[in-house]
Amino acid sequence: MTYTAPTRELRFILEDVVAMEGLKTTGAFKELGTDLTSAILEEGGKFCAGVLAPLNHSADQYGAKIKDGEVTTAPGFKEAYAQFAQGGWQSLSFAEADGGMGLPGALGVAFQEMLQSANMAFGLGPMLTMGALEVLTHAGTTEQRELYLPRLMSGEWTASMNLTEPQAGSDVGALRTMANPAGDGSWLLEGQKIFITWGEHDCTPNIIHLVLARTPDGAPGTKGLSLFLVPKFLLDEKAEPGPRNDLRAIGLEHKLGIHASPTCVMEYGGNGGAKGWLVGEEGQGMAMMFIMMNSARLNVGAQGVGIAERAYQQAFSYAQERKQGRAVGIQEYPAAIIHHPDVRRMLMTMKAKIAAARSICLACAVASDYAANLQDDEEAKRAKAREELLTPLAKTYGSEVGVEVSSLALQVHGGMGYIEETGAAQHYRDARITPIYEGTNGIQAIDLVGRKLNMMGGYPMARLIEEMRETVEDCVTSSNAALPPIGRQLELAINTLEAATFWLRDPAREKADVLAAASPYQTISCETVGGYYLAIGALAAQRFLKDDLETAFAKDRIALAQFYAQSILSTIPGKKDNIYAGADVLFAMSERGLAP
Q1: Are 383 and 375 in contact (CB under 8 A)?
Q2: What is the SS3 assignment for 275?
Q3: How far apart, in whole angstroms, are the C-alpha atoms of residue 305 and residue 283?
Q4: Would you call 135 helix, strand, or coil by DSSP?
Q5: Which long-range contacts (CB under 8 A, 24 or more apart) does 584-588 make?
Q6: What band does 502 get if pLDDT is binned at 50, 70 and 90?
Q7: Which residues are catalytic, by number?
Q8: pLDDT-based confidence at residue 1 (cuts at 50, 70, 90)
Q9: Which are the contacts of 313, defined by CB distance < 8 A and separation ≥ 6?
């Protein structure tokens, strides 16, 4: 159950697949280079593997405890968090002007993957704080930034995001929590929130809650919502934690997985109201929340990849050690199960999909870095569009690969995988939340076909398809015999994706048919784009073939792209009928017929 940070693979994708160093052309990140990237990944990997990974299983068994509104985290978490904060990891990808390290967001996403791999329940705390930092750096008042940013950036304090209520999950407009003006510039909040990740804990002396609430004169639905900064402890004259605010955790959710992550039921008010301050303008709550959620969605994608990597490493190790039956071409009896073709297929599927999903996440992060740092407004706008197009793909494919790979890893273990002692079951339990929170994958699909495909007149997807076709040309004209077949399979997948895109963007298309096609379309988008990045990786790997130290890595990288093309890209043309089927087939059976 050990974990080794995949630093070589992360560096290869950052440098050779998504070309992170190109960010230097923006004028930002002038110190960026192989040495710096390697140093950050190596040190981050050491912390994750050495400090957090050993706590993963024991923390899952212990969980989080609550008594009288106070939450105690699993043994070792408090000390591990202190080391996390001391290392400055919370501020990795934030601007130096705001107290951060000033490194690319792509490098931050790579670190997030390692963090979530090592200990997802722990990693959720810093991940939610990142979202709060995004909001405050973009929309906080000068006073809010001065009071809260330094403590959050350093990791001295953490933050939570409070959106969901018992009657309002994906339907955010049904929120009932109220914020009433206190008359002194602050607001008093009354209401209850559920599913609040790290809403209460014992790792830091203060927790800053960002709470979505309705104001008295607010319009119905989402337009009447505003965002409020509500600290656990109000600050005294020296900006130190003072009196307790009128809020508390009244329960912990009993969950399938991430047991050590305190998922709280939070109550605001009861004794006059919890004191908070408006972030942004009144009625801009959803705009503020989406600043947090876009960051969180990408990080959830990386989280899924992280869990997949951890599950894969354990399955691979088990497959080498577990001996069972005879294997073709192997004299030893019993043979290690890694020599059986079915087990080998599972391992190859896991490895290839992890690489594809990881690449999409890191490409999305690089696009975000370009959008934030390009000086030319039009170029920045195009980069932002690429980021927005890739965000639902990153969240969806990363999370779905997390579930699929952790399930396959359990299968590799056989009956032992079903036994909690091995730890394989924990990865599956932990991964299962990722397609659900921060916007379900179904909502991501609706966002993709309803908004992202139509941005800028359809330019973002059209441009991505154009770039993918350029890679096809590079593959099919390569003198390396392994690459043309990859290009041909990628081309067939692109043709299917492009035709489906035109079909969905037809103005005459019934809305119900578009919505029915959303998830199948998102699936082929993820798989095609993932294959595109693996093809780039295969092309890039050729330059390592003459390096004695890297030849094996290069050959394996090309073989991985071959496998993905043959086993995953090859299936995409056959999925087109599922997209074109329309809504009628989904509603042909009555509710009575659907009933048990």
Answers
A1: no
A2: strand
A3: 35
A4: helix
A5: 585/516, 586/516
A6: very high
A7: 438
A8: low
A9: 2, 3, 4
Residue 249 in tokens: 């955790």
Helix (H, G, I), strand (E, B) or coil at 164: coil
CATH of domain 7-154: 1.10.540.10
CA distance 351 to 560: 8
The distance from CA 154 to its chain's CA centroid, rounded to whole angstroms, is 22
Please state, rounded to an integer, the average pLDDT across all residues of the chain: 96
d(CA 140, CA 193): 23
Beta bridge partners of 208: 159, 231
Global model pTM greater than 0.85: yes
Can you say whether the dihedral through the CA atoms of 450, 454, 456, 461 is positive or negative?
positive
In three-state secondary structure terms, 402 is helix
Which residues touch 119 (CB under 8 Å, ≥6 apart)? 48, 52, 53, 55, 56, 59, 80, 260
The conformational region for residue 476 under phi > 0 = left, psi -120 to 50 = alpha, else beta, is alpha
Instruction: Provide the percentage of residues in the chain whose pLDDT is more than 70.
Output: 100
Mean pLDDT, residues 397-413 taken together: 98
Measured CA to CA, the distance from residue 159 to residue 125 in angstroms comes to 8
Q: Identify whether the C-beta of residue 430 lies closer than 8 Å to the C-beta of residue 409.
A: no
Residue 170 pLDDT > 80, yes or no?
no
Q: Give the three-class secondary structure for 11.
A: helix
Q: Top-level CATH class of 158-284? A: mainly beta
Per the omega criterion (within 30 degrees of 0), is the bond before 334 cis?
yes
Q: Residues with Cβ < 8 Å from 435, sequence gap 6 or more?
A: 304, 396, 399, 400, 403, 441
Per the CB < 8 A criterion, the answer to whether 482 and 558 are in contact is: yes
Residue-level pLDDT at 116: 98
What would the mean pLDDT of 365-393 be, rounded to a whole number? 97
Using alpha carbons only, what angle is made at residue 410 by residues 425 and 41, rounded to the nearest 5 degrees?
A: 80
Q: What string of DSSP letters covers 29-80?
A: -TT-SHHHHHHHHHHHHHHIIIIIGGGHHHHHHH--EEETTEEEPPTTHHHH
Query: For the segment 76-135, what is each residue's pLDDT rounded down to a tens digit?
Result: 999 999 999 999 999 999 999 999 999 999 999 999 999 999 999 999 999 999 999 999
Tens of pLDDT along 314-342?
Answer: 999 999 999 999 999 999 999 999 999 99
85 vs 581: CA distance, rounded Å: 52
| Model pLDDT for residues 217-268, shown as the tens digit of each residue | 888 888 999 999 999 999 999 999 999 999 999 999 999 999 999 999 999 9
End-to-end CA distance of the chain: 41
Residue 388 near residue 460 (C-beta atoms within 8 A): yes
Q: At what angle do helices 424-431 and 377-413 cross, to 10 degrees?
A: 140
Own/partner pairs, 447-452, CB within 8 angstroms, 24+ separation: 447/392, 448/389, 448/392, 448/393, 448/518, 448/521, 448/522, 448/525, 449/504, 449/514, 449/515, 449/517, 449/518, 449/521, 449/522, 450/514, 450/515, 450/518, 452/388, 452/389, 452/392
Rounded-to-integer distance, Cα 569 and Cα 530, Å: 9
